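Need residues for this backbone.
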């Protein structure tokens, strides 16, 4: 098969080891065949699948802090007085008494100027009650300054920018909101129903969704692996089986977790496997020679997108957005700067794209 040339660059989350050259399908199959363990390739989902970890979203009750060389997510302390004022303000806000709510939120901020929730709530009261998007934006920006990883703060700032008819600024805030919460439903509701709000093209997402039960736990009869009804996910499933069970990979594997190094290797193996299968199918069907363009043009939509992202050096942006971020969004607030730049670049190029 062709040695596919993918210009990929590895961007890792904090505390993830750097990877070497990625293995290909032949290497992973060789590891399986040489292993002391038994692997069973099944034609149906495994009965005892490995548990896939999912993580919650984070909200304004949590704060990212730098401790030593490490980012930590910790509770955002709030005094009883401030909590009571915010709760009273929320009652007024829900009753449509926005100016009354604004007074209570302002009183809470006098007691605690570092309450991100207070700035967000106060901003909303100013936006809806005072009809003052400039003043509201100033409050949202104060919340962002306290913790730039708060998705809600960026989304709220975008609403103020929209009212100020500053679509480009609103779009940038949406990109930042999605950087820290790819499954932000309030964002996707607007994106689906009215993309003109931010001056963007209609959104096309490329969901990475392996079949349920693609990998089994180690049992008396070995390790079961399911690559989809037609083997279309076998490259990913075999790679994940190797990383979860073989000693040379186990030290870099987190049970049920999401490490960019591992996902990078396994997404690449999935892509290369599909490239090889597509090439083999075309060669069997073709009356004449075929070239790389023929193979790329015949790829399924997901793998075609991964191929493009990889050659744009944004494979890890795809992984962070579509795999890590959708399964464990809370991890994204602890990203290092390089990973943050990668996911923002991916979103800007493929997801929230300015309309011409």
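Answer:
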């Amino acid at each position: 098969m062709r040695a596919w040339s993918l210009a990929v660059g590895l961007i890792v989350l904090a505390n993830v080891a750097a990877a070497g050259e990625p293995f290909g399908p032949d290497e992973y199959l060789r590891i399986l065949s040489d292993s002391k363990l038994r692997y069973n390739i099944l034609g149906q989902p495994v009965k005892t699948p490995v548990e896939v970890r999912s993580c919650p979203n984070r909200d304004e009750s949590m704060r990212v802090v730098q401790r030593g060389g490490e980012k930590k997510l910790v509770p955002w302390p709030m005094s009883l007085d401030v909590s009571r004022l915010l709760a009273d303000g929320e009652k007024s806000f829900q009753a449509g008494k926005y100016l009354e709510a604004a007074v209570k939120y302002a009183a809470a901020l006098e007691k605690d100027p570092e309450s991100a929730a207070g700035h967000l709530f106060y901003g909303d009261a100013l936006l809806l009650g005072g009809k003052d998007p400039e003043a509201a934006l100033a409050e949202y920006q104060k919340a962002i300054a306290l913790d730039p990883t708060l998705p809600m703060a960026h989304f709220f700032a975008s609403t103020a920018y929209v009212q100020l008819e500053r679509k480009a600024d609103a779009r940038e805030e949406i990109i930042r909101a999605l950087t820290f919460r790819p499954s932000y439903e309030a964002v996707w509701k607007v994106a689906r129903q009215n993309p003109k709000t931010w001056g963007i093209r209609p959104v096309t997402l490329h969901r990475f969704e392996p079949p349920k039960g693609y990998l089994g736990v180690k049992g008396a009869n070995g390790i079961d692996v399911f690559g989809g009804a037609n083997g279309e996910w076998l490259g990913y499933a075999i790679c994940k089986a190797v990383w979860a069970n073989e000693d040379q990979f186990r030290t870099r594997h987190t049970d049920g977790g999401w490490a960019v190094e591992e996902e990078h290797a396994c997404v690449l193996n999935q892509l290369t496997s599909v490239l090889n299968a597509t090439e083999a199918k075309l060669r069997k069907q073709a009356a004449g020679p075929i070239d790389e363009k023929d193979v790329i043009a015949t790829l399924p939509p997901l793998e075609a997108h991964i191929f493009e992202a990889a050659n744009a050096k944004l494979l890890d942006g795809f992984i962070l957005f579509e795999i890590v971020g959708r399964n464990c969004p809370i991890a994204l607030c602890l990203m290092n700067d390089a990973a943050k730049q990668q996911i923002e670049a991916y979103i800007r190029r493929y997801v929230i794209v300015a309309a011409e």
